[in-house]
Specification:
Two copies of one chain form a homodimer. In chain A, 14% of the residues lie in helices and 45% in strands. With 191 residues, chain A is mostly beta strands. The first copy, chain A, is globular and about 60 Å long. The relative contact order of chain A is 0.19. Chains A and B meet through strand 1, strand 2, strand 5, strand 6 and helix 2 of A and strand 1, strand 2, strand 5, strand 6 and helix 2 of B. Strand 11 of chain A pairs antiparallel with strand 1 of chain B.
């Protein structure tokens, strides 16, 4: 067998590139998160991991709400900036020129320039070691009108980013490989 | 503002395409999972969501171990097949011709043909509604030798798949957009 054993690591492909938002002491702040994902189907829930010292986490504890904003590739500079700076020291909204809006929850700031925005209510906060893992129920979903096709979010218009930790690269989505719930039918003949 | 309000939904980009493995009644089985992600850094943890009725979940409860296998795009037929069939009815290992191996945990079956394999010990099982969300600590990490560059996993050789739920498409990784922890420096001048 041609396998190399490595130290236990969280090798996950793809990782997302997300901007997680919270109001900290009443002011909106956003951090870059390159992990987490869908946690439940119905009701819809998302999980994100945040290091304990992060400024955004303070805001999540204050309000028990947060937002998950999906940036398009046009925002890669802003995303990276939000990942290498702390809201304790700079006003990221001002530097990045984010237009902030709020939804039903009133306390989860969202970024108008990001094509997809979810506002979430905290369901669980787990201390798993280096990070808190926060599971939020999606209470509001907003999509930029130009990123819809026939009323549905269109990933080819949203142009999200993959974050690849090993190479520290932001990667675009590529071509469609196959249709889901379909191509696997070919193997039914082998049953 | 040009935002369209939609019903609350788990709009997450990118979603992974994973094969989650467990021994059910002593026999290896694998299911396709298109959600979850990294849950913690140190120790490394991964979370996956599984509907309560799924056959694989039975095996996770039996052993409190599971595996997370990242298929390359060459395995898209097999992945989709594992997503549209149940191990309660067919022997997916046989149909997909998976070569199964085990690591330190002994009870988490892994697929040799998948370039990246993680064996995990269950830390939490949360019932979040339609799905159980299972958080596992990575206890073993295996990478196919040909997918390493300078001893590190190389995503451009691994060729993982994105799963896009809205269009039911498997999507490849595309081009590198920017370098992380770097391009954001350009905005420092605005502080």
């Amino acid at each position: 067998m041609n396998k190399v054993t490595m130290l236990p690591d969280r090798l996950m492909y793809p990782r997302p590139t997300l901007l997680v938002g919270a109001n900290v002491d009443g002011k909106p702040n956003f951090m870059a998160v390159g992990g987490g994902g869908v946690a439940n189907g119905e009701p819809p829930m998302i999980g994100v991991l945040i290091r304990h010292h992060c400024y955004t986490l303070k805001g999540i504890h204050q309000n028990l709400t947060f937002s998950v904003n999906t940036p398009s590739r046009d925002l890669v500079r802003e995303v990276d900036y939000c990942g290498i700076t702390s809201g304790a020291k700079v006003d990221k909204v001002k530097v990045c020129q984010f237009k902030v809006f709020y939804g039903n929850l009133k306390s989860a700031p969202m970024i108008e320039q990001c094509p997809v925005n979810l506002e979430c209510k905290v369901v669980h906060i787990l201390n798993l070691g280096s990070h808190s893992f926060i599971i939020g129920q999606v209470e509001g979903t907003y999509v930029t009108e130009g990123c819809l096709t026939n009323g549905k979010p269109d990933v080819h218009k949203i142009k999200p980013l993959i974050f690849n930790l090993e190479s520290a690269e932001y990667i675009a989505f590529g071509e469609v490989v196959a249709k889901g719930f379909s191509i696997g039918q070919e193997l039914k003949a082998r049953e």
